[in-house]
């Protein structure tokens, strides 16, 4: 029997995206039990857009963060499954039917199911970059096998050389907030999202607690949403820094293993410093070569597809990792030195 699914859409000043998303939800081949928009303290017309579409609306008088918004959506939902989508996403017409199909087939110990997030936006280099290096991929289940430095470094190195092959249904460590769904009773049993996570990391934290309670998390290729990226470099780095803040929150809460620090920027800085002793040309050559060695997929993609723009990918990847390291360190400084919440 297919489950009844409630859909939750959270937004902060995203009226235009809410309109696009609700239009896409209205075109679904399967009908949800309900749709709830959570307006998390917006100052634009988000609430008016939700009312115009005739869906449920919960409004926070002030911005409380994405975890609190998701919890308000959960409280307003009646379905046995609660599906989440973001205001910068547009579900494909079969998205809801795909979620329902997966839930009707998985074992009872599966408590979370996600789908594929496809980057969209203005055509150009950065859209191609996001499609080659999608930041909205579910975290691999291999992360659960260990939290030591050697294990993390091996997984990091493997990701530089090979892409994850799409499969019908696979187990994962955690889901992506833009396309995820959970059993309502399982989420209630772990008391929902941790509202200390105002942005970034809240879905990873929830999945970790669900896994600790004995549940399994899975992802399918069939429930697909398009995620609209701002294809500008400053937004790419802003998003990466926000991921670093999320990592700081995770580490500050769990204090297990090591925080997620990317070694590439540190290695690049050390190599350039050593090469600089031989002069500026040596340092410049090192700065050009080392990113290609750290992220060899750029060369491989250029050879396999003929798209020479892939050769620029390693430099953007190093910039992303640097921004994420900065976000992590600034978040930990805020929590551990100033004593303020991250």
SSE blueprint:
Elements: E1 5-11, H1 15-26, E2 34-40, H2 46-53, E3 56-60, H3 66-76, E4 81-86, E5 89-91, H4 95-105, E6 110-120, H5 125-132, E7 139-140, H6 149-161, E8 169-174, E9 179-183, H7 184-189, H8 202-212, E10 216-228, H9 233-254, H10 263-276, H11 280-294, H12 297-305, H13 313-336
Parallel strand pairs: 1-2, 1-4, 2-3, 6-10
Antiparallel strand pairs: 4-9, 5-10, 6-9, 7-8, 8-10
Please tell me about this protein's structure.
The chain folds into two domains: 5-125 and 134-230, Spore Coat Polysaccharide Biosynthesis Protein SpsA, Chain A; 232-342, no CATH class. It contains 13 helices and ten strands. Helix 10 packs antiparallel against helix 11 (280-294). The termini are far apart. It is of the alpha/beta class and 342 residues long. Strands 1, 2, 3, 4, 5, 6, 7, 8, 9 and 10 form a ten-stranded mixed beta sheet that branches. It has helices spanning 15-26, 46-53, 66-76, 95-105, 125-132, 149-161, 184-189, 202-212, 233-254, 263-276, 280-294, 297-305, 313-336; strands spanning 5-11, 34-40, 56-60, 81-86, 89-91, 110-120, 139-140, 169-174, 179-183, 216-228. The mean pLDDT is 91.
The figure for the number of domains is 2
Q: Total helix count?
A: 13
Uncertain stretches of 5 or more adjacent residues: none
Number of strands: 10
Radius of gyration in whole Å, from Cα? 21 Å
Helix fraction, binned, reads: 40-55%
Element pattern in H and E:
EHEHEHEEHEHEHEEHHEHHHHH
């Amino acid at each position: 029997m297919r489950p009844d699914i409630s859909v939750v859409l959270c937004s902060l000043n995203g009226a235009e995206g809410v309109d696009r998303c609700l239009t896409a939800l209205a075109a679904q081949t399967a009908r949800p039990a309900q749709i709830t928009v959570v307006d998390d303290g917006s100052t634009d017309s988000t609430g008016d857009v939700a009312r115009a579409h005739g869906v449920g609306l919960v409004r926070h008088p002030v911005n409380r963060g994405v975890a609190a918004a998701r919890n308000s959506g959960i409280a307003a939902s009646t379905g046995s499954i609660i599906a989440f989508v973001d205001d910068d996403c547009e579900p494909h017409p079969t998205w809801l039917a795909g979620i329902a199909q997966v839930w009707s087939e998985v074992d009872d110990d599966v408590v979370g199911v996600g789908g594929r997030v496809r980057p969209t936006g203005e055509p150009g280099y950065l859209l191609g970059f996001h499609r080659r290096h999608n930041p909205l991929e579910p975290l691999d289940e291999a992360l659960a096998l260990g939290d030591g430095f050697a294990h993390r470094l091996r997984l990091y190195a493997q990701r530089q050389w090979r892409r994850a092959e799409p499969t019908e249904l696979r187990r994962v460590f955690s889901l992506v907030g833009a396309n995820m769904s959970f059993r309502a009773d399982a989420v209630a049993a772990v008391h929902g999202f941790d509202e200390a996570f105002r942005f970034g990391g809240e879905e990873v934290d929830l999945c970790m607690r669900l896994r600790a309670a004995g549940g399994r998390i899975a992802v399918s290729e069939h429930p697909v949403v398009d995620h609209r990226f701002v294809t500008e470099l400053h937004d790419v780095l802003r998003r990466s820094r926000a991921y670093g803040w999320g990592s700081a929150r995770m580490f500050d809460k769990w204090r297990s293993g090591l925080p997620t620090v990317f070694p590439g920027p540190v290695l690049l800085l050390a190599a350039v410093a050593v090469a600089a002793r031989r002069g500026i040309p040596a340092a410049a050559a090192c700065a050009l070569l080392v990113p290609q060695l750290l992220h060899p997929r750029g060369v491989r993609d250029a050879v396999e597809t003929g798209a020479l723009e892939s050769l620029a990918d390693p430099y953007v990847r190093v910039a992303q990792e640097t921004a994420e390291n900065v976000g992590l360190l600034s978040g930990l400084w805020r929590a551990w030195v100033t004593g303020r919440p991250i």
